[in-house]
Specification:
binds (2S)-2-hydroxybutanedioic acid; Aspartate Aminotransferase, domain 1; about 400 residues; single chain; 2 domains; alpha/beta
Amino acid sequence: MLSNLKDQPADKILTLMQSFREDPRDEKLDLGVGVYKDASGHTPIMSAVKKAEAWLLESETTKSYTGLAGDPAYAAAMRSLVLADSVAADRVAAIATPGGTGAFRQGVDLIRTASPEATVWVSAPTWPNHLSILKTTGTPFVEYRYFDASTGHVDFDGMIADLDSAKEGDVVLLHGCCHNPTGANLTDDQWRQVADLLLRKKLVPMVDLAYQGFGDGLDADAQGTRILAETQPEMLIGASCSKNFGIYRERTGILFAIGDAAQTKTVQGNLNHLNRQNYSFPPDHGARLVSTILTDDALRAEWQAELEGMRTGMLDLRQQLADELRQRTNSDRFDFIAQHRGMFSRLGVDADKVETMRRDHGVYMVGDSRMNIAGLNADTVPILAAAIAKTCG
Ligand code: LMR
């Protein structure tokens, strides 16, 4: 049996992580995988998370199974964080999932169950694992225009024109904020135009919200998702706590399915069934940390302040990098870096140049020229700017 197996295509982001670890050079810069790093290059455990863990260690009395959907307190706290009061609670079904990837995978499985003929529309480009999961599950998908490499911004006219040709019942995958890999995002007004188009064409939005709090703030980053929740009859949302709570390895995510209140019980039953089929009960430790923090005023304030520090730190790095590049290239070509939001920006240069920067300067970014801004600090920004200016200027 095992001899029938063929090699699987390597995941570009994870391969890059490995190559960086194996590079013996001291002067190397890891701008690959989307993990936040502080100024000393360390990925810290957030102080509110540490405190919640200490509290849990003392107070938790059992490690018996949770429900199939996970802890209801986690779902309620996350519903409030993501959706606020944009939608009535009785329209929302939810399951805890292993990370945002688990939420996306379960969402795709739900689409396959409910509407196998639906095509999923994905932004060009999107996170490579979206495509890999769609391929693995045999889900039909097509790309819509999204990123204009010549300006570094969203090609909104192209996006709307492409989505206008979707057929009724198709699913449109949208990044809630901090678009991965480009860093280019929709304005609130553009979200409203997308909402109108989805309604008119009877399309179902599926939002991937993996970076809430990393762009313009916790509420601002959820605004597009909430505009859709307010206006659409049906919607899926996969949210991740990996980045905004810094609990990557705890695998903490959630899938929301919003529909008619009369259907919520059936939808919830289907979500529970999906969890049961794929792994039974979802991981609980990270979810319990999140609900502990979100429901305790002091812990929540501490978490928000730390998250805000990470967010504004990334904005400062963006501005510093854009300024350095303006000076070194004597052009405004890279100004978009300061306007992008989230961990990533796509530089918009070809793979040969990315490879040259890796080989000659020890700069590791994904082959499509996505760089993780959170992998920089004030001292390494000039090093990166010099490498970019020399290679691409
Ligand atoms: C990324 O895009 O780098 C992160 O979402 C990590 C991952 O799993 O790919």
